[in-house]
Each structure stands twice: as structure tokens, then as C-alpha cells.
Structure to design on (708 residues):
């Protein structure tokens, strides 16, 4: 694969070395939405299993329907399933799709007794939070990663990250969620509940009178009692939540983890990738490299843009060469797009000269079978 | 206002689409087009992405409406980045004259709390601000002729717009309920249209179909499907051979070495594969039986001029519509 000229000088990402390294147990694919993260994660996992004989599981978040089917992910049961049709020799490939609500339920069940868990599940706040809290998906993806790691059944776990508004959400969400669950506001609301008080604010000191009146006025009493019930029920789990979030964070910093930033050569995706690489460095998280996905391939590089444009003009004037003219138009469009992609990608290369890069050619059709994933795996090389 | 152009009879235009499809660009072009001829429009974003500022090459927008563009022929586009926290404080100030208590709420984390615990509540605040802008009047006249919302992506749009359902679970009575009902009434009225931006790629088309199903189920009014970044379907069904290319290149005075010929054929066939995929995706979109507008790819990036051209295309009368000159 011809790399953008800037890439030829920089270090090249050796994907096989990452996948074959027995010390690497977790590969996290991150990047902004729409860059082919899920497909990349699936292709990496398949390659690790087939070419490197590793027992691999891939955790996907929101795969395209046909890709999900090709991985055998027809039901959402939140557990890894064997992928059929792989050619593994010693290795194995399992795949799963994250069910965020179910994962949250599992966490609750793990940290509390069944009776209390029932109360929590029935609470409207829990229902809202477990299915829609802005960081829940990110938090639960990391939680699932911890669970898979704890089972110790695989040599390698490949994780796709949620299609967040920002690629960084999955790093921040666990901390935000635990901060929130542990926050002052909650403790304030919790104080009377802990004391077994009937009214939410009955035991709050007089100086909070204004505050409590305001809150009651805005939120209404029914809502407050649901909230207080939710908070009281979750109280026993606070410690567990925080501990798990911190533990996952440490795993992400460890040598056993390799981050791959996935980007397409477009301004928004490159901007996110740039930001992400900087952030990983700041958090001391191990960035293995950049996967520059969906790069336009020029198959006839010997025919430059100016010659192409001149020929289109000549032939259009002369007439009778419609097919050649259109083939040249396609070629001119590819050249233009490729040049633009290289300019856009330069931004990342300049900002992170030491980060290894691998390019993957744009596929003419969407990938939704194992052969397509193998083709992408081969393109890494 | 005058409802100009086919498919844009609403006053509130909600623009959604999968991430990466260019919905911010489309929303901006629409706001620009609808402002033409001396109108005033407001372009709103709600996801703290500062996409509008980036598009117009401005510093990050504050929580304040300010002019970002002047369309051809006069008029004004203003933009606003709505922030849930600021919207909550503004709302509290407006209805409860909180003053110090408002600051106290912020200090103990109540604002953070209210805007994060229940995304439903957060969405009521955001859409509440949108409603306020849509209905705002000054001196007995509407302040904005049209409001264009750069909305959350397709995966979250149903939940975002279905504010009453989300808050009803949490707030059975009280001001939050009243507020969300007011917002819901506007969103389901003929004043509103939800437009979906897509690309001719598998995931965006799948999400467009899913979003339209969901919006239909929720009773939200669906407007136009905007297919962004399309390319002309060159070589559709054409037979490309090296022999023909050799003749053509020779006629143009170019060298016909084997690598170039083989390379051009490979490029042409890959393109034909793409064209076939796009044709089947286009058929899926047509089956949704909604008005469709196609916008071309803009490989060099979006400039003020290209926004004007996109606005031209968005506001052009539909070719099949004989009574398109709706005023």
C-alpha cells in the first residue's frame, strides 16, 4: 500500500507485532464515529485468532447489522459467542455485542442483595440512568472489559469503543459517573434517607431550607422521593463503583494494553485522532499507533492530474471516447481526493511524529463477511 | 414568514443524521437559504461540539445569539450553542427569580446533577430553549422567521425529541412536566419538520431508515431526506476494456504503458462496484417515500461560497412539483 508521502518517513505500525505479542492482552480501538472502528476491531480480532493462534474475544458496541450477523451476533445476550467459519489453528474467536442495561443490572446484582436489587431495578431513576445516562454506555463498555479480563479465558480482548460525541468519553465517563454517584448533591439528598427520615429534607439543617424549598418546588415531591429511594438503594454500591472505575483505569495504563487510534483521512476524524493521541500521552496510556482507514487508492499513479485533465478536455472536444473520458474523470477524482487526504493527514503526522501509522485502503463495498474482514486484516500488512 | 422552497414549510427545522454525514453543514446551509431576502434565522447546536463555530471559522460560540453569516441578497443568520447548565439557570431565573439560591444550587452540584442524572431532563432544557427561540416575539413580531436545529445524531434523536415520554417517567407533576408538554406540542405541530441527512453508505442509510421508523412511531413530523456528498454515477453499466482505453489514451496523446492501463481499469471497476452499491442504497432511501434532495461532495472543504451553493440546491423547487412556488 502506497503510504502518504509524509508517512514514508515516519515509523510504520506493525499490526502483526501487536497482535502476536503475548504480553499484550487488551487492544482498544478508539476514534470518532464513522471511521470504521467496529470493522477494524473485528478484523484485528479475526487476524489475531487465525494468523497468530490467539484465543481472542472482540467486544463490539454498535455493529452494522450485516457485520453483526457475519460474526454470529444475532441475539443480544451480553455474553461472548463462538464465531463460526473461522480458520483457527490453536486460536479461537468469540464475539459479543454490549448490552448496556444488562451490564448495569449485572453490576447492581454483584454489589447488593437480590431484594435491594429488585428495588433498584424498579426505580424510575435507575431505569432512566441505566438506559440513557450520557456516560452509561462508555462506563459499561469499560465494565464489560473488566469482567472479560477477570474471566481470564482469552489471550487477547479487542474492544471497540462507543460512537461517542467525543472519542474521549469512554475515558472520562467512568470517573464522571463515580464522581456523580459519590457527589455532594447525592450525599445531601441521602442524608435523611440514611437516617430513615420520612421527608427527604427533614433532617437537613436550616441553612439548607432555601435550597430544599427550591429543589422541592422545581422537582416536585414525587420525583424527590423516587430520587431519594434510588440514592439510598445505590448507597451500598458507591464504594464498589469507584473501585471498579479506578481499577479499569489502571488496566488501561498497564503494559498489557495497546491503544489503536482509528481515523479516516477527513478533517474531523483527524482532529479527534490528534486530540486523542495527546490525551493518551497525558494519561500515560500506551498508544500503539494510528490506523489510517479508508484511504483512497490510486492504481494508476503514473498518470498525473494535469495530463488527465488535458486529456479529458481533448477527448470531450473530439467526441466518441465517452468511456475513456469517464474513466479519466474517475481517475482525476481519485487523485484529487487522495491529495486532499494526504494534506489532512499531515496534521496528525506533524503533531505526533513518533506515533507509528498503518494505512488501510478504502473498500469499494461495505464489509459484512469474514472474507471482507480478512481482506482488511491483510491490508494492515 | 413566507414559506419558500419545496419541503421547507416549517418554522422549526430539526436536522439529524449519523455522525460524519455533514448535518452541521446542511443545517447551516439551510439556515442561510431560509434567511435570504431579508429574513432572520437562528442556527442552534446542542451538543457542545462547537461545530458551527468551526464551520464558520469563528471562536467558540458563547451561550448567546450572535450573527454568523449574511446571506446573498440580505438577511441574517444568527447562531447559538445551547448549554444545558446555562439553560437551566436561565430557566430557573426566569420562572423562580432565584438569584442567590441559583448560585447555591450550582455550588452544591445541583445543576450538574439535574443536567446529568436524567438525560430526559437535560433534553427538556435544551429543547425548551429551542421552543423559546421559535416562539419569541419582540414588538408584536416574531424575532426569527425560522430556527434550524443541528440536532443530536440519528441514534439519539428519538429520545431527544420525545421529551414528554422521558420526563413523564421521572416527573409526574410539576413544572418539568408542564415545560416538557409545551415543548412536545411544538415538536408535533405543523410548525416543525425533522430532516435526516445521510450518505450513500451502509450505516448512515440503515440509521436513516431506523430513525424514520422511530420518528414515525413517535408521531414526529418528518421532512426531507438529504443525501449528502454524492458523486456523479460515472460508468454505470459501461464496459471498460484495456483495448478501448488504449485507443482513447492514444487519441489524447498520452502514453499507454501496461501499468497505467491496468491501473485505470482497476480504478474504473472499483468505481463501478461503488456505483452499484450506491444505486441499491438509493433505492432503499426511495422506498421510504419521503422527499429526497441530493447534495454534491465538496472535496475542498466548506467555504462561505459553497454554503451558498448548497443553500441554492436545498431551496431549489422540486422538479416534479408543478405547484412548487409556495408562498
Amino acid at each position: 500500500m502506497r503510504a502518504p508521502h509524509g508517512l514514508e518517513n515516519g515509523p510504520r505500525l506493525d499490526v502483526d507485532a501487536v497482535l502476536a505479542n503475548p504480553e499484550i492482552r487488551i487492544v482498544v480501538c478508539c476514534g470518532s464515529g464513522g471511521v470504521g472502528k467496529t470493522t477494524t476491531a473485528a478484523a484485528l480480532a479475526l487476524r489475531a485468532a487465525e494468523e497468530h493462534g490467539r484465543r481472542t474475544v472482540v467486544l463490539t458496541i454498535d455493529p452494522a447489522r450485516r457485520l453483526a450477523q457475519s460474526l454470529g451476533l444475532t441475539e443480544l445476550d451480553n455474553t461472548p459467542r463462538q464465531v463460526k467459519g473461522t480458520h483457527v489453528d490453536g486460536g479461537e474467536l468469540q464475539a459479543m455485542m454490549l448490552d448496556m442495561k444488562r451490564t448495569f443490572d449485572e453490576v447492581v446484582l454483584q454489589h447488593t442483595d437480590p431484594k435491594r436489587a429488585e428495588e433498584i431495578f424498579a426505580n424510575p431513576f435507575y431505569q432512566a440512568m441505566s438506559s440513557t445516562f450520557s456516560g452509561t454506555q462508555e462506563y459499561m463498555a469499560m465494565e464489560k472489559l473488566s469482567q472479560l479480563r477477570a474471566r481470564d479465558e482469552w489471550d487477547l480482548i479487542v474492544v471497540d469503543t462507543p460512537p461517542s460525541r467525543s472519542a474521549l468519553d469512554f475515558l472520562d465517563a467512568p470517573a464522571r459517573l463515580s464522581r456523580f454517584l459519590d457527589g455532594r448533591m447525592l450525599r445531601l439528598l441521602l442524608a435523611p434517607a440514611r437516617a430513615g427520615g420520612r421527608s427527604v429534607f427533614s433532617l437537613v439543617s436550616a441553612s439548607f431550607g432555601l435550597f430544599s424549598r427550591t429543589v422541592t418546588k422545581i422537582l416536585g415531591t414525587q420525583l424527590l422521593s423516587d430520587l431519594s429511594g434510588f440514592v439510598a438503594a445505590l448507597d451500598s454500591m458507591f464504594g464498589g463503583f469507584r473501585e471498579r472505575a479506578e481499577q479499569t483505569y489502571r488496566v488501561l495504563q498497564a503494559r498489557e494494553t495497546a491503544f489503536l487510534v482509528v481515523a479516516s483521512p477527513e478533517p474531523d476524524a483527524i482532529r479527534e485522532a490528534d486530540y486523542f493521541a495527546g490525551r493518551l500521552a497525558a494519561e500515560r496510556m500506551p498508544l500503539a499507533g494510528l490506523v489510517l482507514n479508508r484511504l483512497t487508492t490510486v492504481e494508476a499513479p503514473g498518470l498525473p492530474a494535469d495530463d488527465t485533465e488535458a486529456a479529458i478536455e481533448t477527448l470531450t472536444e473530439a467526441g466518441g471516447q465517452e468511456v475513456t473520458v469517464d474513466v479519466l474523470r474517475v481517475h482525476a477524482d481519485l487523485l484529487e481526493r487522495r491529495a486532499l487526504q494526504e494534506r489532512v493527514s499531515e496534521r496528525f503526522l506533524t503533531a505526533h511524529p513518533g506515533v507509528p501509522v498503518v494505512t488501510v485502503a478504502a473498500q469499494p463495498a461495505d464489509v459484512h463477511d469474514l472474507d471482507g474482514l480478512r481482506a482488511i486484516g491483510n491490508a494492515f500488512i | 414568514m413566507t414559506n419558500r422552497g419545496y419541503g421547507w414549510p416549517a418554522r422549526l427545522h430539526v436536522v439529524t443524521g449519523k455522525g460524519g454525514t455533514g448535518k452541521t453543514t446542511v443545517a447551516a446551509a439551510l439556515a442561510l437559504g431560509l434567511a435570504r431576502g431579508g429574513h432572520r434565522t437562528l442556527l442552534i447546536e446542542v451538543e457542545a461540539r462547537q461545530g458551527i463555530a468551526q464551520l464558520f471559522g469563528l471562536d467558540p460560540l458563547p451561550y448567546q445569539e450572535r450573527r454568523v453569516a449574511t446571506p446573498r441578497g440580505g438577511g441574517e443568520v444568527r447562531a447559538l450553542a445551547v448549554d444545558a447548565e446555562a439553560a437551566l439557570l436561565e430557566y430557573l431565573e426566569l420562572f423562580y427569580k432565584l438569584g442567590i439560591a441559583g448560585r447555591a444550587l450550582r455550588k452544591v452540584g445541583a445543576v450538574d446533577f439535574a443536567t446529568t442524572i436524567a438525560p430526559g431532563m437535560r433534553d427538556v432544557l435544551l429543547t425548551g430553549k429551542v421552543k423559546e427561540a421559535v416562539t419569541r416575539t419582540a414588538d408584536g413580531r416574531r424575532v426569527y422567521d425560522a430556527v434550524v436545529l443541528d440536532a443530536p445524531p440519528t441514534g439519539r434523536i428519538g429520545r431527544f425529541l420525545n421529551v414528554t415520554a422521558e420526563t413523564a417517567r421521572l416527573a409526574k407533576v410539576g413544572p418539568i412536566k408542564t415545560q416538557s408538554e409545551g415543548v412536545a406540542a411544538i415538536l408535533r405541530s405543523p410548525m416543525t419538520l425533522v430532516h435526516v441527512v445521510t450518505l450513500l453508505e451502509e450505516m448512515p442509510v440503515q440509521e436513516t431508515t431506523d430513525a424514520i421508523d422511530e420518528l414515525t412511531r413517535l408521531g414526529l413530523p418528518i421532512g426531507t431526506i438529504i443525501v449528502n456528498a454524492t458523486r456523479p454515477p460515472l460508468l454505470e453499466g459501461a464496459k471498460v476494456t484495456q483495448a478501448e482505453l488504449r485507443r482513447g489514451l492514444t487519441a489524447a496523446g498520452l502514453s499507454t504503458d501496461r501499468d497505467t492501463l491496468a491501473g485505470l481499469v482497476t480504478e474504473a471497476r472499483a468505481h463501478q462496484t461503488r456505483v452499484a452499491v450506491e444505486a441499491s442504497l438509493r433505492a432503499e432511501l426511495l422506498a421510504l417515500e419521503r422527499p429526497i434532495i441530493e447534495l454534491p461532495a465538496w472535496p475542498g472543504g466548506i467555504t462561505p461560497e459553497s454554503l451558498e451553493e448548497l443553500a441554492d440546491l436545498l431551496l431549489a423547487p422540486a422538479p416534479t412539483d408543478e405547484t412548487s412556488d409556495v408562498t
Observations:
- The beta strands of chain A are 26-30, 55-60, 81-82, 92-97, 156-160, 257-263, 287-295, 357-361.
- The CA atoms of residues 24 and 309 of chain A lie 49 Å apart.
- Chain A has one domain: 5-182+237-299+348-379.
- Residues 1-5, 192-207 of chain A have pLDDT under 50 and may be disordered.
